[in-house]
Amino acid sequence: MSRQDWHPDDCISPLIKSLPPSGIRRFFELVSQAKGVISLGIGEPDFATPWHIREASVFGLERGHTSYTSNWGMIELREEISRYLNRRYDLSYLPDSELLVTVGVSEAVDLALRAILSPGDEVLIPEPAFVSYGPCTLMAGGTPRPLITSAADEFRLTPETLEQAITEKTKAIILSYPNNPTGAIMPKEHLLPLVEILQNHNILVISDEIYSELTYEAQHSSIAGFSGMKERTLVLNGLSKAFAMTGWRVGYAAGPSEIIAAMCKIHQYTIMCAPTQAQRAAIEALRNGEPEMQRMIRSYDQRRRLIVKGFNDLGLDCFEPRGAFYAFPSITRTGLSSEEFAQRLLAEESVAVVPGNAFGESGEGFVRCCYAVATSDIEKALERIGRFVQRNS
Amino acid sequence: MRKLLELLEENCKLAPAELAVMLGQEEQAVIALLEKLEADKVILGYRALINWGKVEGNGVTAIIEVKVTPERETGFDKVAERIYRFPQVRSVFLMSGAYDLLVEIEGSSLKEVAMFVAEKLAPLENVQGTVTHFILKKYKQDGVIFAEQEEDYRLVVTP
């Protein structure tokens, strides 16, 4: 090849080239350029990390605790995580072999998929789903198989859908409840029939429970807590949402020691360890953060009621989300597609929402609206959306 | 009730209809509860918290430690009453420790506050002595931080 023929683009692997660009990213560019926008497109708490947690990290810095930690994460942190999972969800994991501290749940998802998948393996992903599951599955050599959930079932995964999707190639299923973007939860009675099916097959459950603390008028149950499920489940969780610690990047995986060790192998070669200062903060959060966390949850709950009632009053059917901090109203009565709705709402009324199809095809006809924004902004946004809907129906 | 009070303490401009939705209750029930809380003097008023430091021609505030001799039967209450009846007095607290009453006074100038202490407060029969501290700058009051509001650093759209 001659010097002139060099195109950096040619270096990129066909797999990476074929990955769909994140629909959200494209929309982000649009919103960032607009002025005076009320954004309901946000995906994180509107609280800064509680001060006592930040202070613990500052104290660590002052004392010069700036070196690497164990690949697995600081043992004090793993002990706190173990206690926390036991206290909150009645799960028991050994700090020294069944827990791995990761750089957010995102890394844990990637590690889990890379640790288990071989080419041809299929991963079941109930949709609408968080945007990374499909691409991470592809990058790990697997094949994502979306499972459609619907508003009629309050976006829960039904046993019928699961049963029909399982083939001999099915290696794992990613359950993500409370769900981003729908706000759906899977209470115990709805998990039970899934457990019965999963136990008849050799399928690993990757349970992304990052929103586990954010449930309203309902209690989160982890599928790992069902008898016989601990050995076939990886629980992925982190501190980002519950403790308002998104930017710290601390997550963890809990599961059978063999799988955790395999994940740690990848983690030690690629990441080494989660940031030391963030781990210090995480210890403080798990030890003393619950009162502040409960205060934030109360506040989300109040705003949740406000936005859900608001959408239903506007005639945008919105099932009652009992988890996370998103409402997922249907916009079909406007006759617009999710993307048209989001783009025109932004252009005409300066409100940003995320088109539902960014989370899979079954998200079409819906938009995701985050209610972790100021009450006054929720009210203003509802007013503007109301005007927009009136013009378009 | 506690949740309602917490919401109002943060923002007393929320209307009963909004409060009702946020708390998952009927509007009528919220109105009734508000009336009861007002009648029971749990809610004493609905006021704006103003950063007077940003308003031109603002006055001065002083915190005054007052040592008093309690009276027979009424203890400190009678003395306190004689102090809090002055409209310049914003708050009065009975304290443990080196002095008895902590009095917050507002005036239009340093001189005005000084004169009030010298002419009204110090000469009171039961007052043994006063120590006046003028407030130079307010950083936080009633849980509200007075510094410029922090920006929202969050990305406007995230997955």
Spell out the blueprint of helices and strands:
The complex is a heterodimer of chains A (393) and B (159).
Chain A: H1 8-11, H2 14-18, H3 23-33, E1 38-39, H4 51-62, H5 75-89, E2 99-102, H6 104-116, E3 122-127, H7 133-139, E4 143-148, H8 159-165, E5 170-175, H9 188-199, E6 204-208, E7 233-238, E8 251-254, H10 257-270, H11 276-288, H12 290-313, E9 326-327, H13 338-349, E10 351-352, E11 354-355, E12 367-370, H14 375-391
Parallel strand pairs in A: 1-10, 3-4, 3-5, 5-6, 6-7
Antiparallel strand pairs in A: 2-8, 7-8, 9-12, 11-12
Helix pairs in contact in A: 4-11, 5-11, 6-7, 6-10, 12-14
Chain B: H1 2-10, H2 16-23, H3 27-39, E1 60-68, H4 77-84, E2 89-94, E3 101-107, H5 110-121, E4 127-134, E5 140-141, E6 144-145
Antiparallel strand pairs in B: 1-3, 1-4, 2-3, 5-6
Helix pairs in contact in B: 2-3
What does this protein structure show overall?
The complex is a heterodimer of chains A (393) and B (159). Chain A is of the alpha/beta class and 393 residues long. Chain A has 2 domains: 3-48 and 292-385, Aspartate Aminotransferase, domain 1, CATH 3.90.1150; 67-288, Aspartate Aminotransferase, domain 2. Chain A contains 14 helices and 12 strands. Chain A has helices at 8-11, 14-18, 23-33, 51-62, 75-89, 104-116, 133-139, 159-165, 188-199, 257-270, 276-288, 290-313, 338-349, 375-391, and strands spanning 38-39, 99-102, 122-127, 143-148, 170-175, 204-208, 233-238, 251-254, 326-327, 351-352, 354-355, 367-370. The mean pLDDT of chain A is 95. With 159 residues, chain B is α+β, with helices and mostly antiparallel strands. Chain B has 2 domains: 2-39; 52-138, Alpha-Beta Plaits, CATH 3.30.70. In chain B, strand 5 (140-141) and strand 6 (144-145) form a beta hairpin. The longest helix of chain B has 13 residues, at 27-39. The mean pLDDT of chain B is 91. The interface between A and B is medium-sized, with 29 and 17 residues.
